[in-house]
Write a structure and sequence with these properties.
The complex is a heterodimer of chains A (273) and B (295). With 273 residues, chain A is an all-alpha fold. Chain A has one domain (2-270). Chain A contains 11 helices and no strands. The longest helix of chain A has 33 residues, at 105-137. By secondary structure, chain B is of the alpha/beta class. In chain B, the strands form 3 sheets. Chain B has a 6-stranded mixed sheet, sandwiched between helices. The two termini of chain B are 33 Å apart. The chains are: A mainly alpha (273), B alpha/beta (295). The A-B interface holds A 3, 6-7, 10-11, 14-16, 88, 92-94, 96-105, 107, 270-273 and B 47, 50-54, 69-70, 72-73, 77, 79, 81, 83-88, 92, 95-97, 99-102, 140.
Chain lengths: 273, 295
């Protein structure tokens, strides 16, 4: 596998788009978190009214959850990068040439999926660094409570990346694939919101608490595990919201991940190139 | 040993049957031409052998064995178009190809020299002309000095000098004992460099075998006289001629290679009181041969 990765590295290390998007992502992670940090410190923190201003999202242990949640919004970038890297192979027809030169089809797609894993690991590492930086900047004592959210972030990053790879393998054309990635994400979010409203209604009418049903969809499952830390006000409102069933959403998210892994592999191995 | 043996191979794209049960084999050391007009299934056939297309039926063997990824590493292939990373230079592209084939990088300069790309080896692929891209693809196929080479339309996009260079390269490779499988729609190309040929048309194999056996050229004599009817009647008595065709007010007499004797024909008619107003040896053009083979 290291041999395959080395070849993959030869493909991307001199690719301008890869370098540019990579830099945007790293800067973006810090800037996004810094903005959230500043807004909280200078606006929310000065609003007065005991309950809210005592709450700092970047205190240890909140910082793990806040950084994970805020950075989650930027996971589009590695996904986009993966779509471009995959569809490039189709438009340059190097997907064919790599096989002709002696890779098996499985090797070709496995190393791309591995790249998705590596992007997810690097993103997670960035989150850990960000969480630590802003945690210490808030001058609170180090703690690891809530670090599970970094794990959720990793799962979300990996899910986004694998879905991106799947769309790339399925659509093959850069523009269409990126378009579909965005349209799908938008569509799923709208459906998810509707399902959430329905869940709320079902609970309010006393029919049943089925959790936030919007979180049961492929991309939202990984999303649903990551939330902004509950500030005291929201904690009060929580009783009227549907319960977040982590024991449903987590296995679902893992299930979707495995499904897209398997499907991407199968699709590339079985079809004409 | 046969380098490639194809057994009843077929391929359907939906309703369209691109290959309809093709069988042939490529002997070691041959220059094997796959000849056919556009859309006859040449690239589809090679695509299946290189595992980028899935066959709908039939099978094939490489080096007398069930094909594996390792077999493809031992074959240098240019399939249809030069496929490279546009943003990388020739050298960087060849490093990737060499790594996939499991070779070192030491012969990269060599192969670029062979195809006259050494001077532009650090320019990005996207800046290359069509002919340069084709040369790079041939260079890539030569990496690691493989025993077998597959060239799909190798002279596509090349200027006349480039075409001549590639043909002499193929001859050099063949002289060095390599087996070369070459697809082409140019009969002239196949005839000049190939020892064996398979002729495809609309997914059907029309003929395959030794070039000298497949491309037998009849010698043709064109004749005319004032009384064409008498000319025709008498022609049946002409010794050794194979067939008689009427074209453009002339009679064309076909003879097996080396048996045509123009003065004999003249004498034959003169002895029977017919004076020929036209007597000419006709060169059978390659194009007409191609039409004859594929129609």
């Amino acid at each position: 596998m290291t041999k395959l990765l080395k070849i993959e590295w030869l493909k991307i290390k001199n690719y301008t788009a890869f370098i540019v998007i990579g830099i945007f992502f790293v800067i973006g992670v810090f800037v996004t978190n810094y903005i959230v940090y500043l807004v909280n410190k200078n606006i929310v923190g000065k609003m007065g009214g005991g309950l809210v201003n005592a709450f700092n999202p970047y205190n240890f242990n909140n910082t793990w959850q806040t950084s994970s949640y805020a950075t989650g919004w930027l996971l589009l970038l590695p996904g986009l990068m993966l779509i471009i890297l995959i569809t490039n192979e189709f438009s340059f027809r190097t997907s064919r040439q790599n096989i002709i030169d002696g890779w098996s089809r499985s090797e070709f797609i496995r190393v791309k999926l591995l790249l998705g894993l590596i992007f997810a690991l690097v993103s997670t590492l960035l989150v850990v660094i960000t969480a630590l930086v802003f945690g210490f900047a808030s001058q609170t004592t180090f703690g690891t409570n809530g670090i599970s959210h970094v794990g959720y972030f990793f799962l979300k990053a990996l899910s986004y990346n694998i879905i991106a790879i799947f769309i790339g393998v399925l659509i093959r054309r850069t523009g269409f694939a990126i378009g579909l990635f965005f349209i799908y994400m938008g569509a799923e979010n709208i459906i998810s919101q509707l399902l959430d409203v329905w869940s709320l209604k079902l609970k309010r009418d006393g029919i049943g608490d089925y959790g936030s049903m919007g979180d049961y969809l492929p991309m939202n499952a990984a999303d649903g595990l990551l939330t902004f830390p509950d500030n005291p006000l929201r904690s009060i409102a929580k009783n009227s919201l549907p319960t977040d069933y982590y024991w449903i959403v987590l296995p679902l998210a893992l299930g979707y991940l495995l499904l897209f892994l398997w499907w991407s592999h199968r699709r590339f191995v079985k079809s004409d190139l | 040993m046969s380098i490639l043996a194809v057994e009843n191979l077929s391929k359907n794209y939906g309703h369209i049957k691109a290959l309809k049960g093709i069988s042939f084999s490529v002997p070691k050391g041959s220059v094997f031409g796959i000849l056919g007009p556009n859309g006859s299934g040449k690239t589809t056939l090679l695509g299946i052998i290189m595992n980028v297309l899935k066959a709908s039926g039939g099978s094939y063997k490489l080096f007398d064995e069930t094909p594996t990824d390792d077999h493809r590493r031992k074959i240098g292939t240019l399939l249809e178009t030069p496929n490279f990373y546009h943003y990388l230079s020739a050298v960087r592209n060849l490093k990737i190809a060499a790594a996939i084939k499991g070779h070192g990088e030491d012969d990269i300069d060599n192969v670029l020299e062979t195809v006259n790309l050494a001077q532009r080896k650090h320019s990005p692929f996207s800046s290359y002309s069509l002919g340069m891209k084709q040369r790079l693809a041939i260079a890539s196929a030569l990496l690691g000095d493989p025993e077998v080479l597959v060239f799909d339309e190798p002279t596509n996009g090349l200027d006349p000098v480039g075409i001549a260079e590639i043909r002499s390269l193929i001859k050099r490779l063949s002289a060095a004992g390599k087996t070369i499988i070459m697809a082409s729609h140019l009969l002239d190309e196949v005839e000049k460099v190939c020892t064996h040929v398979a002729i495809l048309k609309q997914g059907v194999l029309l003929a395959s075998g030794n070039v000298n056996e497949i491309f037998v050229h009849d010698d043709i004599a064109q004749i005319a006289a004032a009384d064409m009817e008498k000319l025709k009647t008498l022609a049946t008595g002409l010794p050794q001629h194979k067939k008689l065709v009427e074209a453009d007010g002339l009679l064309e007499l076909h003879f097996a290679p080396g048996t045509l004797d123009l003065s004999g024909i003249n004498k034959y008619y003169f002895d029977r009181q017919v004076t020929l107003s036209h007597l000419q040896l006709k060169k059978n053009s390659l194009e007409s041969k191609f039409f004859e083979l594929t129609n």
